[in-house]
Amino acid sequence: MRQTCNSDGGVGSTENVQARGITLLSIFVDTPTAEPNPETKLLADFKTDTHLRKVYLAGREYLNKEGQTSVSPLIGKIMQQICTDPTLCPEYPSSFGLPEFTRRATELVLGRDCHAIVENRVLGVQTVGCTGAVRLGAELLKHWYNVSGVWCGPVYLSSPCDDSLAGIFEAAGIQDVRRYRYWDTEQRGVGVQKMMEDLEMAPEQSVIVLSASAHCPTGSDLSQKHWRLLTQLMVRCRFFPFFLLPAQGLCHGDFQQDAWPVRLCASLGMELLCAQSFSHSFGLYGERVGHLLCVLKQSSTLLAVQSQAEKQVRALWSRPSVRGARVVATVLSNPAHHVEWQEGVKSMVERGILVRERLREKLRLLGCPGSWDHLIQQGGLYCCTGLNVQQVEFLEKRRHIYLHPNGCLNPQFCLAAPPGSLQRRHTPKLAVWLCLSTHRIIRVSCLRSPLPSL
Amino acid sequence: MSLFGEVPQATPVAVFKLSNDFKDDPNPMKVNLGVGAYRTDEGQPWVLPVVKKVEKLIVADNRLNHEYLPILGLPEFRSSASKIALGEDSPAIQENRVGAVQCLGGTGALKMGAEFLRRWYNGNDNMKTPVYVSAPTWENHNSVFANAGFKDVRPYKYWDAEKRGLDLAGFLGDLETAPKHSIFVLHACAHNPTGTDPTHVEWMQVAEVMERRKLFVFFDSAYQGFASGCLDKDAWAVRYFVTQGFEMFCAQSFSKNFGLYNERVGNLTIVARDADNVRRVLSQMEKIVRVTWSNPPSQGARLVAITLNTAELFAEWKDNVKTMADRVLLMRASLQAKLQALGTPGTWDHITQQIGMFSFTGLNPKQVEYMIKERSIYLMASGRINMCGLTTKNIDYVAKSIHETVVNVQ
Fold first, then answer.
1. Which cofactor does it need (chain A) (predicted)?
2. Average model confidence (pLDDT) for chain A?
């Protein structure tokens, strides 16, 4: 009878294992260290940077006036209510999540009187954040898109895009992931012509991942005119649009406008997927409240697609976590709460615009070369400065200001914060620092290469 | 033409269908013995008192924010959850060779483990490594491993229907003949759906073969504390394997033992040869998490972490768990006693010998159908019942129904 373990080098310890002739070579010995994802690496570099005035501008969250993430008093109150509600019981939710949540999330994107909803050809699934929604959508496409044709791609992503997107499709088994040109460095905006050129070359039945509004990471979106042209192209080439809508309401302060491209496609009778997140608009990052919307051409396919979606969810996470979705559903189903929440979102947008304007103004006052109008033309969480790789590196290494390698930043992180707050020791001088640095680098780089055209 | 036009209807998940049929049944005497969740003697779900307490603490705590958790989850949750499985004084923990990933429930933990193994175990991207799951097993085991890319998911002998117990010879036989490095999914305790666990001696025999044949140990631990009422007792198998020097994965769920079904609290515990291996494995796990759910949800993990790391709350939780386990034991004893008193043909000792939430009654599919159609008592086609569906109010009805079924239907 073998001994049970004890704490001083007993039976299970390394010495004893060796003594019993068990190989000490781990079964994981061939597992390499993974390359850290760029965002993790950037944050890690920032954390180990000992410079007193270091600043991190690549955060993923919306910040309040104090430079912190927070939930509104309304959300806080609803969380309290939920906590003390005796009628709520700890049951397994369905794999699709809370019905009230999926219903409201669907209506928020498509509009309550959307034909697709009325004709019962819309599927909504609560997911673990936007990532979960994209992953579920990818699994659905991989397994069930054009079954008889054995579809396996391609999926087109914008260049640049969120750095996890390609990996999500690959993890779902879709290896053929390509890019279409999106951000135009010279124009400092969307290069629509190049985008259309690339998509014209795409094979039929390609899945095109599109940002409905507040493009990550550039903040630059298509105009309505360009959306119309794009949808014509998609219909003609039989493309399948997969929309990303992580911050509805936070781009223009208008929920309809932010979802307009999705509504346009739905009104044209297209099939589409749309991955939504409520992290930003509710400040509920930790709760992972996401939603996958699927609009089908025919209601006759709904039950079958729904049943297959359930199977996919079962094998991914079985069912989603409920708390965050309950909060969102409570707000969205109560007219008074809904209005209060929308007002809150609008003021977040206004604050965002203010910060962008201040930044642009300071750059103008400092006589920074180039045009900086794109800073206020962009919307949502991110903005793309247009700085190149060398300039971004200069900012990081010489000025301890951390941006995404592609020159994008979250302007909210420029806000003032109370003294002593962790990591976000921003002062009103930050904007000046940023401007000076930008100004200096552009000057420096001007010596080496031609000025960017205005 | 819809490009989803040819999507076939998936076969419904059996346990969901059963629940739906139960809901639609108008018979006031109906009993749901299919659900996989705890119910009180009033037939209601139970919010553990300690959970209510901690929820209030969380809501009242202004310092807690709603930011993203780290990709691998809440650190204090991960470490305390692993301690629960491995024991405070585990040599593996002391030698700093344990890692963990917070996941979406037990399913999420299995998923992460499966995705990692498919990518990095037994060669790179080797989808041919056989994955063995018990016959029978929780049906989602098959889906999770198949969807992770494994092409060869097979059963290993486990349940002996004739003797209504463990088929040890069959189990050991399959271990001996499995290709080396095959992955075996083992139920840590309270086997689902049979409720039949190997004894300590039997576990030792299993471990001996697995060590010799270099088979990968993947524990599924969804019922720790719930089986015997004692956390340490229920973790005996997992801890024994650690003392034998195994590297392993252990997928833990806190859905049942915390009653946190809807917050999806799970943990994948990783035991490796040393800290460097753990570090590399976790770095790859991060990549996998990033493309599945990016960051896990915070609420449930926070709740469990606070409970496990606060002495009084921990004691209260253990007590709550024992309450649930005791009720199950009581229902087992009552059912067995009633069936014996009725003189129901056959032996019914297995009801008290089996452990955990479930019992494999031994009723055949025809008998199950009779129970459902004629008596409105809902159980799985396998004959599995959830003891938590029994209450002092319905146990007479259920016992009589089983009796009637066994007598009239063969």
1. pyridoxal 5'-phosphate
2. 85
Report the CATH architecture of A92-333.
3-Layer(aba) Sandwich (3.40)
Instruction: Give the highest mean pLDDT range of A284-288, B205-209, B223-227.
Output: B205-209
Closest residue of chain A to B86, computed from CA coordinates: A5
Q: Tell me which CATH code domain A35-71+346-454 carries.
A: 3.90.1150.10
Which uninterrupted H or E stretch holds A124? strand A122-128
Burial B22-44 (b: 16+ CB within 10 A, else e): beeeeeeebbbbbbbbbbebeee
Residue matched to tokens 């039989």: A238
pLDDT band at A10 (very low <50, low <70, confident <90, very high): very low
**Tell me: the pLDDT tens digits for B233-268?**
999 999 999 999 999 999 999 999 999 999 999 999
Which of B16, B243, B274 is facing A12, going by the closest CB pair? B243
Q: Which residues contact A394 (CB under 8 A, 6 or more apart)?
A: A437, A441, A444
Q: Which two tokens stand for residue B134?
A: 């018990």
What's the pTM value of the predicted model, to 2 decimals?
Answer: 0.93
User: Does B30 qualify as catalytic in the annotation?
Assistant: no
Compute the distance between CA of residue B242 and CA of residue A12 in angstroms, rounded to an integer. 6
Contact between A115 and A282 (Cβ < 8 Å):
no
- Would you say residue A427 has pLDDT above 70? no
> Which residue among B30, B46, B138, B197 is the active-site one?
B138
CB-based contact B190:B388 (threshold 8 Å)? no
* Domain spans of chain A, in order of start: 35-71+346-454, 92-333
